[in-house]
Design a protein that fits this description.
- With 251 residues, the protein is an alpha/beta fold.
- The protein has a single domain, classed as Aldolase class I (TIM Barrel).
- Strands 1-4-5-6-7-10-11-12 form an 8-stranded parallel barrel, surrounded by 6 helices.
- The longest helix is centred in the N-terminal third of the chain and has 11 residues.
- The chain starts with a strand and ends in a 7-residue tail after the last helix.
Length: 251
């Protein structure tokens, strides 16, 4: 079995890491540069940096902040927020990102996935999907969970896969910040139908939730924010626990 990855996520707004519940009620969680350095030293497998209001505010991700975070890291680094064209990807890769995460721009213009994959390689292109489950199923949202679309989670993930995405980062808006566990049923369905890795996001509150995302949801990686930022779970302890549960994780 391929080693499962543990990925802290820095949601950044106005230069500070923030965390909310169900995409609202944000509170500050620290300096992204310091947090990035800490997670790299603690044994995180990757780091994700999302400029969470860039798309909504119609601006580009802060390149200087990306450079400062990248300078402290020895692990793969994914950056998202306000990426609309190849020039944005080039700028962020030059600043030290290893991958880019696209969400709203891909929903508006799916060809962006093909373009990034053909110019930079599929491994650079992470398609992030924010979806909420309601009576009609799982609906994809844009602009940091503000704007519903006509797209269904599973159909959109399959199309992104076929267009050349290297990974799908699926955040359940229902579970985000609630700390009751990941959307394992949806994760399992994604994992069984896609040919690329699936990153679970939204709902981590205990070590058992990561175990369940891997064993029940068949996720390839699990992403979390507040449980790491506020010291509720340490990455070394989490990895030791997962190894004890028979799950392969990197040291």
């Amino acid at each position: 079995m391929l080693a499962k990855r543990i990925i802290p996520c820095l949601d950044v707004k106005d230069g500070m890491t923030v965390k909310g519940t169900n995409f609202v009620n944000l509170r500050q969680a620290g300096d992204p540069v310091e947090l990035g350095r800490t997670y790299s030293m603690q044994g995180a497998d990757e780091l994700v940096f999302l400029d969470i209001t860039a798309s909504h505010e119609g601006r580009k991700t802060f390149t200087d902040m990306v450079q400062r975070v990248a300078a402290t890291l020895s692990i793969p680094f994914t950056v998202g927020g306000g990426i609309n064209e190849l020039k944005d990807v080039e700028r962020l890769l030059s600043a030290g990102a290893d991958k880019v995460s696209i969400n709203s721009a891909a929903l508006r213009r799916p060809e962006l996935i093909d373009e990034i994959a053909s110019h930079f390689g599929s491994q650079v292109c992470v398609v992030a999907i924010d979806a909420r489950q309601d009576e009609n199923g799982w609906t994809c949202y844009m602009n940091g969970g503000r704007i519903p679309t006509e797209r269904n989670l599973f159909d959109w993930a399959k199309e992104a896969n076929e267009r050349g995405a290297g990974e799908i980062l699926f955040t359940s808006m229902n579970h985000d910040g609630v700390k009751t566990g990941f959307a394992n049923e949806a994760l399992n369905r994604l994992a069984s139908t896609l040919t690329i890795p699936v990153i679970a996001s939204g709902g981590a509150g205990a070590k058992e939730h990561f175990r369940d995302a891997f064993l029940q949801g068949h996720a390839d990686a699990a992403l979390a924010a507040s449980v790491f930022h506020f010291g509720e779970i340490s990455i070394p302890d989490l990895k030791e626990y997962l190894r004890g549960e028979g799950i392969s994780v990197r040291r």
